Amino acid sequence: MKPINLCFPTLSNYEGLGNAIESACNGSVRPTQIIVMDNGQRFKELFGEVNEVNGTTITIVTPVSNLGVAGSWNYFLNNYYDHIIISNDDVIFNSETLRLLVEASISNPEELFICPNAYWQHKWSLFLQKKISLDILGQYDENFMPCYFEDCCMEYRMKLKGYKPLIVNNCTYDHIDGGSKTSQHSVNNQQFQKMLEYYMKKWGGIPRCETFITPFNQ
């Protein structure tokens, strides 16, 4: 089996990140390596020098400044190889989550994105993405900074190219915060609105109501 690279961007939810890592490393199939994009620059301060957990190598990448969600995801895809699994820091892996994702990837070589069973707005909290998707779809749009709508943008680009995420119905996990928090939307309402406006300018409508088939209708 190819190495399993499990990737986490994080900014401030270090407690949740620790729980996510622990649950991932206790499954029936464990990641070969866990890569943490430490956008908050506090991992080593809080956890010390952690090099492995249950035989899984831990790699901490500390950028000079916050790369944001899209920038972190692009880093993972550009620097690692299949199997690349990207996760929020607020999820708990069930014992078979990784095994089922990887098996679905192997069984469906033509699929670019593979997700556990979840409500549509949650599926981007944990997904397997194949590196070849960069050649077909390009990178995530880092103008969605630091977050919001980078996933919707990619999903719409997938649709335009004739792709959609493959949902593995018997693969489950727990999403503790359940998507972007309503409280965060309140606190960061200005940022959320700014990114929504950029999305609408780019695609001619809100997510699932787009009217453009090329970015900015150009």
Detailed description of the structure:
It is a single chain. With 218 residues, this protein is α/β, with parallel strands linked by helices. It has one domain: Spore Coat Polysaccharide Biosynthesis Protein SpsA, Chain A. Helix content is 35%, strand content 19%. It has eight helices and ten strands. The protein has helices at residues 14-24, 43-47, 68-79, 97-107, 133-137, 150-160, 182-187, 189-203, and strands at residues 5-10, 33-38, 52-53, 56-61, 84-87, 91-93, 113-116, 126-129, 166-168, 173-175. The strands form two sheets. It has an eight-stranded mixed beta sheet, with helices on both faces. A two-stranded antiparallel sheet has the order 6-10. The termini are far apart. 36% of the residues are buried.
Helical content band? 25-40%
Order of helices and strands: EHEHEEHEEHEEHHEEHH
Q: If helices are DSSP runs of H or I spanning 4 or more residues, what is the number of helices?
A: 8
- Describe the largest sheet: 8 strands, mixed
CATH class: Alpha Beta
CATH homologous superfamily?
Spore Coat Polysaccharide Biosynthesis Protein SpsA, Chain A
CA-CA gap between termini: 43 Å
